[in-house]
Every structure is written in C-alpha cells, then in structure tokens.
C-alpha cells in the first residue's frame, strides 16, 4: 500500500498529497472516517473523486447522484483540462487562503472550490451543445453554494474564491488565470443587450469583497479592485482602483496581487 501511495504521489503530486492528508484526517478524527473514505480514499484518481463530490453536492429529487456522477465521469474522461484546472485551483487556494492548511480542505469543505469545479463540468456540457444539462448544473450550484456562474463564461486555471457567498459571473465574462476574488463579487452586464456584455478579467487580478465590475470592459493583468468598488471603465494593468464609481488610486503594489492577497490601499498602492 505504501509503495502504491508513493507511486501515486510521484505521478500526481496534488492527488498524492490529498490521499496522504485524508489518511491522516481519518486517524485524527475517526468520526469523519466514512466521509473521507467515500470522498477521497475510495477513489483511484482525482477525477473520480471530483465527480463523486460534485454529484453528491448537486443531486436532488430531480436528478439523482448516480446520473450526475456518470455525467461528471464523462466530462473528466473527455477533457483532461478539467482536472488539471482543479489541481491548479487547489494549489491556489492552499497558497492564498490563510484558512487553508491542507490540500484536502478545498475538496471536502470549501464551497468556492466546489462551485468552480461544478462550473467547469457545466462549461464542458455547454461547449458540447448539451445546454439544458449545463443550466441544470448552474441552477443547482447557485442553490447549493450560492455561486451563480453562467456555463458559457470562460474561467482560467488557478482560481481562488474565498468564502464564495453571492458570486455572480455572467454569460460572456472571461476570467484569466491565477485570479483571486472574495465574496459578493459580481461580473455583470449593464443592460438588456444580448451581445458581448460582461467583463474581461486579466491574469493575476485580485477582486475585493463586494466589488461589482459591470459591462464589456477589461480589467488589466495584475491589477487590484478594492472591496466595495463599482467598476464601470477599463482598468489598466498593474493598477489599483477603488470607489463608486471606481477610479485609479495607485499602482497594484506588487507583481502578483492575486497571490499576495494584499487588500490595503495605503500600504500597497
């Protein structure tokens, strides 16, 4: 068994670490043994574990866990990018969220991570032309996690959504790689137009709690949006914006705001 675990850790370091942490979690808290075994240790790959976790969370009287798990298994089997992105999201959460001390935590407990993985399956379904199923995933994710991401939105790797209450990401929104956002963030439109109407968030952006970015505007790479801001105009790269409406108040303060997670304007701008 130890030799098998070592091989897994070598081939898939993120999954190997999750397995190791799960085994320790069972020893530390035997009452969680059943949950940890069913969610993690029972599975040979991270793809199967993700499919199980998503289906368990989203199942209801209208769609059984078994059917949802088959859908998720199909998605992970067809598109390797889904699980690669999930691994990057786990590492991002561990590195940026001071409340995350193990890779295991996002898989089991963090609804921001789980909601993003549900979106990734919904996005695969949408791209495959299975739009009604994609909308079912969106609906259940909104009901279960309080996170409403349109399945047509484009979201990159290494995403960390902390707390994840009341997140809204619209149909034509684009979120780059290594983006961090806090609760109550909206990437929305400004009217009833049906064309490209939602924000384009660059790589390495940090979006503070309660911020609203509205309209088909770009937030440049490695910029910061202060908590509670309402962004209606383009944001240059490597800048900090704040206020209602938001305006540029200084530099971003560091090369990678989404990783440093520094929200203070006075010290970093």
TrEMBL record:
It catalyses: L-serine + acetyl-CoA = O-acetyl-L-serine + CoA. Residues 14-118 form the Serine acetyltransferase N-terminal domain. Pathway: Amino-acid biosynthesis; L-cysteine biosynthesis; L-cysteine from L-serine: step 1/2. InterPro entries: Hexapep, Hexapep_transf_CS, LbH_SAT, Ser_AcTrfase_N, Ser_AcTrfase_N_sf, Ser_O-AcTrfase, Serine_acetyltransferase, Trimer_LpxA-like_sf. GO terms for molecular function: serine O-acetyltransferase activity. One of its GO terms (cellular component) is cytoplasm. Coiled coil: none annotated. One of its GO terms (biological process) is cysteine biosynthetic process from serine. SUPFAM superfamilies: Trimeric LpxA-like enzymes. It is an enzyme of class 2 (transferase). Keywords: Acyltransferase, Amino-acid biosynthesis, Repeat, Transferase. It comes from the Bacteria. Its EC number is 2.3.1.30. Gene3D superfamilies: Hexapeptide repeat proteins, serine acetyltransferase, domain 1. Belongs to the transferase hexapeptide repeat family. This is Serine acetyltransferase.
């Amino acid at each position: 068994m130890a030799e098998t675990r070592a091989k897994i850790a070598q081939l898939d370091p993120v999954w190997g670490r999750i397995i190791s942490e799960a085994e320790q979690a069972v020893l530390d808290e035997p009452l969680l043994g059943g949950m940890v075994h069913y969610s993690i240790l029972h599975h040979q790959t991270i793809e199967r574990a993700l499919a199980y976790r998503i289906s368990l969370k989203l199942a209801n009287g209208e769609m059984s866990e078994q059917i949802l798990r088959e859908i998720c298994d199909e998605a992970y089997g067809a598109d390797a990018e889904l699980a690669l992105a999930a691994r990057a999201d786990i590492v991002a959460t561990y590195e940026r969220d001071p409340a995350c001390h193990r890779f295991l935590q996002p898989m089991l407990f963090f609804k921001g991570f789980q909601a993003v993985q549900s979106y990734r399956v919904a996005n695969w379904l949408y791209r495959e032309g299975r739009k009604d199923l994609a909308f079912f995933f969106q609906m259940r994710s909104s009901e279960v996690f309080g996170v409403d991401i349109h399945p047509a939105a484009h979201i990159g790797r290494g995403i960390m959504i902390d707390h994840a209450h009341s997140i809204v990401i619209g149909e034509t929104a684009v979120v780059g790689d290594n983006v961090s956002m806090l609760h109550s963030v909206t990437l929305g439109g400004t009217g009833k137009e049906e064309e490209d109407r939602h924000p384009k968030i660059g790589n390495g952006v940090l979006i503070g709690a309660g911020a609203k970015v509205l309209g088909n505007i770009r937030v440049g790479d490695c910029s910061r949006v202060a908590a509670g801001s309402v962004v209606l105009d383009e944001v240059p790269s490597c800048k900090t914006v704040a206020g209602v409406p938001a305006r540029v108040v200084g530099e971003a303060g560091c090369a990678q705001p989404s990783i440093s997670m520094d929200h203070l304007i006075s010290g970093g701008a």
